[in-house]
Amino acid sequence: MAGKAGRSADDAARMPLMEHIRELRSRLIKSALALVVAGIVGFVFYRHIVNILETPICDIKGVHGVGTPNKDCKNGVLVLVGVSAGITLAFKIAMFSGIVLAAPVWMYQMWAFLAPGLYKNEKKYGLTFVGAAIPLFAAGAALCYVFFPTILRVLMGFVPSGVAAQLPLDQTLVFFLRMMVVFGASFVLPLILVLFNFLGVLSGDRMRRHWRVVVLAIFVFAAIAVPTGDPIGMSVLAIPICVLYFGAIGIALANDKRRAARRAADPIHQLSPDEASSLDLNPLPVEHASSLEDIS
């Protein structure tokens, strides 16, 4: 007797409610175990992770803190307040590290739970989306890592001369990680538009016609997301997103042109199971007519 491993996608899509709940519970347990294991790894190596994250902050010139400058933090602006601040920071780093390191596992579990309810072409586009989203998110996070010292340099420029600055390490690193998430997620947004186009939800012509509104919205979002509020910081985030958006328009227009050409050659090509094909209502010629009397 075939077990669950041999169950087909159609059988999985027709599972009863309780079976879906059991499937969801199994996926959540596996994801939670992966998060715990990855979190333990992050807790063990949290000092190395902190050193990587604090380097752009400690290399900022023109400011000084109350801490003693050393080879690890040259300006001494990072501090920890409280007896339990160190262990709290370790758990925070472990939590963020666990989410990042276990991302392939929990993303796969989420995909495996949703995939049986998707059509074949939707599964193909979804896997491509996941494969392209990871490097785009990493590129956005890397851009934030490179540009973050400039953001802090502008913010620290408001500190009066002769005054020492204190940056709580736990709050600063959490703020840093949130900024990296914002930059990374922003780079994925144009990819979502491409996915909607391939699924037939959004046309490339509509994206092209509304580019002015979208570009304005991107710059407004960048002005809000970057805390410095200066035009340079806003442009560092907005310009790459605009480039990706126009690239998404080009891909969407090419896909619409390809889809139109294939439908012109075959009207029922790539129709979903829920979409009705066109009917030929022209009557065929009757070659041999017979009356009802002849039939009887």
Automatic annotation (TrEMBL):
The chain crosses the membrane at residues 28-46, 77-106, 127-148, 175-199, 211-228, 234-254. GO terms for cellular component: TAT protein transport complex. GO terms for molecular function: proton motive force dependent protein transmembrane transporter activity. It is a multi-pass membrane protein. It is found in: Cell membrane; Membrane. Belongs to the TatC family. This is Sec-independent protein translocase protein TatC. The gene is tatC.
